[in-house]
Design a protein that fits this description.
about 325 residues, Phosphorylase Kinase, domain 1, Aminoglycoside 3'-phosphotransferase, Chain: A, domain 2, 2 domains, 11 helices, 10 strands
Amino acid sequence: MAGSQFTLAALATTAVPELVVTGAGVLGSVRDGDYESALLQHADGALSVIRRPRSQRAEARQSADLVAIRALSAGIRTRLPFAVPEYIGQAPIGSTRAIVTTFVDGDHLDPRALPTSPTLAASIGAAVAAIHGLPTSFVSDAGLPSLTPFEILRGAVTTMDRAVATQLVPAALQQRWEHAARDQQLWQFTPTVVHGSLDASSLLVRGGTVSGVLGWGDLRLGDPAKDLAWVLGIRDDRTTSAVFAAYTSNGGGRDRQLGQRARLYHELETAGWLLHGVQVKRTEIVDDAVAMMQRLAAVVDADAATPIEAEHVHTMEIREVEELLSTTERRHG
């Protein structure tokens, strides 16, 4: 609505009594989107953002995000190579509340730019590794979820089962996913701090590097592969390799099965999209999800898809060891 940014600016001064606002601008869509937002300029030149949720769903997500960013203390933030919004204040408005946070500068990541920017791909890998390297204690101290590998597997299986129950999942995908779920080695990993819902929309970029990360409402102890699944959607092998290589070189990737589970999570996004379409009764969403799964199934049927299975370390038989020793002796004899 016209002038809503000025209403929000006035509300911000109620939320933060010492705040002196000298300017306000619209942030995001005026009519659409989950939040009514404004960018505020302070008398000292600093910038902040105020957001009012437009729905109960948005309000719940904002509340979860608030708990997470307040758990990210100043000490925790020093470990991150990017900025995270900081809580400043809040004020009631109608039946909900508006939240004021610091403004994080940057443009939302355009995944199409990644294949031409190895530096940016490396920055993404380093950013994800930094999140996963955070101490786990602050998550439990804040009362955030701490999931075990079994609970994470159970969640994935639940998504599979619900999708299969619609009778719209191709048989090839059902078999592929169920095989991955039964592979015990695939699910032997140590949970780490994870963003939980990381994708391109969560990342802000400035000067070819990640400048900020948003949307922390799913912060928890969980599977690090979940934060890397979206990278596979870029469908550029060099970009994927660059992100994962940077992730590993910056302290991540100690888990040999990380990439395999990331692939499974990426494929299960189609199942999630299908279930969303069924829930909201949107035929076009269901049809889109089915088309995506059929394309993936065609690749699987053609044996062109990378298997989702644990990478086993090859153990040599006694005969192979003897042959290796014999060859070595001949070379150095």
